[in-house]
C-alpha cells in the first residue's frame, strides 16, 4: 500500500512540475531564477504549488500585464519558496551521489546523506539567492552581492534542513525496521514530505529576515 501511495504522490509531483514548467516557458518570469524555483517546488508541493504559482507567481511574468496585489503573507511564501527550491535541488542531487559512491560516515549512509545534502543544499541555496539579488544590485559587484546572499539565506537554509533532516531521521530510526533506500519509491515519497516540512520550518526564518530587511521580499 505504501508503494502505491508513493507512486501516486511522485506522479502528482511530476505532473505538477510539467504543468508549471510549461507555463513558465510560455510566460517567463521577470526574475530569471524564478523560472527554476516554481517548477522545482512543484515536485514536492504538487497542486498547492500550482495554485500558488497561478495566484502569485504569474503576476510577475514578463509578457503578462497583471496587477501586483500580493500581500505580506504572499511575499513571505514566495521568499520561502525561493529558499526551499535551492535547498531541494541540492538535497535531490545529493541523494544519488551518496547512493552511487557508497559514502558512509560512522559506518552509516544516513549521516553521509545529511552531510553531502547539507553542503549541496547550502551551496545551491546561496547561488539561487545570488541570482535574485545580483540583477537588482549590479553596481555593488559580484563579491559584495555574494556576501549579501550568504547573510540573507544562511539562517533560512539551516532552518529548512532542520525540518527536512528531522523527518528523515524519524523515517530512518523510528518508522521503519528496514528504512527505504533511494531505489525505493517510498524513499522519495518520504523526501517529498521532508521537503514540505523543511518549507514549514524555514517560513518563520524567512519572514523574520524579510521583516528585518536582511532579505529582499520576493
**Secondary-structure element series:** HHHHHHH
**Unreliable spans:** none
So what's the oligomer here? single chain
Rg over C-alpha atoms, rounded to the nearest angstrom: 17 Å
Strand content: under 5%
Overview of the molecule:
The protein is an all-alpha fold and 218 residues long. The model has no long low-confidence stretch (mean pLDDT 91). The chain has seven helices and no strands. Helix content is 76%, strand content 0%. 41% of the residues are buried. Helix 2 crosses helix 4 (72-101) and helix 4 (72-101) packs across helix 7 (185-211).
Features:
218 residues, mainly alpha, 7 helices, 76% helix, globular
Secondary structure: elements and pairs:
Blueprint: H1 2-26, H2 34-45, H3 47-57, H4 72-101, H5 109-133, H6 141-175, H7 185-211
Helix pairs in contact: 1-2, 1-3, 1-7, 2-3, 2-4, 4-5, 4-6, 4-7, 5-6, 6-7
Amino acid at each position: 500500500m505504501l508503494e502505491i501511495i508513493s507512486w501516486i504522490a511522485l506522479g502528482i509531483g511530476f505532473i505538477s512540475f510539467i504543468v508549471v514548467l510549461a507555463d513558465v516557458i510560455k510566460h517567463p518570469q521577470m526574475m530569471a531564477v524564478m523560472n527554476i524555483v516554481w517548477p522545482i517546488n512543484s515536485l514536492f508541493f504538487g497542486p498547492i504549488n500550482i495554485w500558488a504559482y497561478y495566484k502569485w507567481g504569474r503576476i510577475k511574468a514578463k509578457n503578462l500585464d497583471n496587477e501586483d496585489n500580493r500581500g505580506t503573507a504572499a511575499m513571505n511564501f514566495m521568499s520561502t519558496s525561493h529558499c526551499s527550491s535551492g535547498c531541494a535541488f541540492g538535497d535531490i542531487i545529493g541523494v544519488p551521489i551518496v547512493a552511487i559512491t557508497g559514502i558512509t560516515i560512522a559506518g552509516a549512509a544516513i549521516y553521509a546523506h545529511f552531510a553531502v545534502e547539507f553542503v549541496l543544499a547550502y551551496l545551491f541555496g546561496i547561488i539561487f539567492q545570488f541570482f535574485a539579488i545580483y540583477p537588482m544590485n549590479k553596481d555593488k559587484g559580484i563579491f559584495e552581492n555574494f556576501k549579501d546572499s550568504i547573510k540573507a539565506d544562511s539562517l533560512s537554509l539551516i532552518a529548512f534542513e532542520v525540518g527536512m533532516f528531522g523527518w528523515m531521521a524519524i523515517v530512518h530510526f523510528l518508522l521503519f525496521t528496514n528504512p527505504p533506500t533511494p531505489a525505493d519509491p517510498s524513499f522519495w515519497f518520504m523526501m517529498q514530505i521532508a521537503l514540505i516540512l523543511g518549507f514549514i520550518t524555514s517560513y518563520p526564518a524567512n519572514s523574520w529576515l524579510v521583516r528585518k530587511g536582511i532579505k529582499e521580499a520576493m
